[in-house]
Design goal:
This protein is mainly α. The protein has one domain: ABC transporter involved in vitamin B12 uptake, BtuC (Orthogonal Bundle), CATH 1.10.3470. Helix 2 packs antiparallel against helix 3 and helix 7 packs across helix 9.
């Protein structure tokens, strides 16, 4: 390939990392907040699919993509609230409830979303960062999802809030020592329900990004397991909002390799390159299976730290 082709490929991967990584960013931030409180939500796949359907339906019926985004967040929060309430009951497993939530969310999305497969809804606008170039390819590659800056702001807010505010201290205390939180008069279940619900709202924004920006339509296989991948991504990021941003861009870049190669005329092995995010997830799970490596940064109330 020529130098220009290599530059086009690099820009396509960078732009694709942001485009593909935006849903990963929101879902991982939501799960990071949930796990910081000492609860794990494996139902994020169901949250993602259901919120994507709800956001698409809301945008289609209202004519406003931003109302769709809001509805997606509310839908994600509703499912996460159900998860939080069920997990607060005695002898209820976070893992089993999360799996049930995943199936419930997917089932509800498939049932209510049947009539949304063909219609087109208003799309989330793009922010053009390629105006400095006369190349249509560069301009297209650097058209950024308008939700991405919101994700950046959320990452900064979560990182600052968890480290410097009272509510951040309470959330971390509930995740590290429920006995200490109880001794100070806080309701551990209440804190975890609130964190799980807020995390579901954030994850729901990732669902809106899927159906209203990239790929920008609704179908039953929309998420392709991104909700489950996000759980591994949070472990890889060591429960840090800023590292979640980097991990989301890494996964996004991995998912963008195939389309980027195709954009410069390299079509061989396209489907093989599409499997890179899943291979990366498997590699992360294998690399973090050692107890000594999993302990670092993990909230002590999570099973991965015991």
């Amino acid at each position: 390939m020529t130098f220009d082709m290599w530059m086009d490929l690099l820009l396509a991967i960078i732009g694709g990392a942001v485009r593909v990584g935006t849903p990963f960013l929101f879902v991982s931030l939501g799960e990071c907040l949930t796990e910081k409180s000492g609860r794990i939500n494996l139902g994020l796949e169901g949250v993602l699919v259901f919120s994507a359907m709800a956001g698409f339906g809301g945008a289609y019926l209202s004519g406003s993509p931003w109302l769709g985004v809001l509805l997606a967040g509310i839908s994600g929060a509703g499912l996460a609230l159900l998860h939080g309430l069920l997990c607060s009951l005695n002898r209820v497993s976070d893992i089993a409830t999360g799996i049930a939530l995943m199936l419930l969310g997917a089932g509800l999305a498939f049932y209510f979303g049947k009539g949304l497969i063909q219609p087109q809804a208003p799309q989330i606008p793009s922010i053009g960062l390629g105006g400095w170039s006369d190349s249509p390819g560069v301009q297209s590659a650097l058209a950024i999802n308008a939700l991405f800056p919101i994700g950046l702001a959320l990452a900064a807010l979560l990182a600052w809030g968890l480290a410097n505010t009272r509510w951040g201290l309470v959330v971390r205390m509930a995740g590290d020592s429920s006995d200490a939180a109880k001794a100070l008069g806080y309701s551990v279940n209440g804190v975890r329900i609130a964190a799980t619900t807020a995390g579901g709202f954030i994850a729901g924004l990732g669902g809106a990004s899927l159906s209203l920006y990239y790929p920008g339509s609704w179908n039953e296989g929309l998420s392709s397991g991104q909700g489950l991948i996000a759980v591994a991504l949070v472990i890889f990021a060591r429960w840090s909002p800023w590292r979640c941003l980097g991990a989301a861009l890494l996964f996004g870049g991995a998912g963008a390799i195939g389309p980027a190669l195709q954009s410069v005329g390299v079509s061989g092995g396209y489907y093989l390159f599409n499997a890179v995010p899943y291979v990366l997830t498997l590699a992360i799970l294998v690399a973090t299976c050692s107890p000594k490596r999993a302990i670092k940064g993990a909230p002590m109330e999570l099973g991965v730290s015991r």
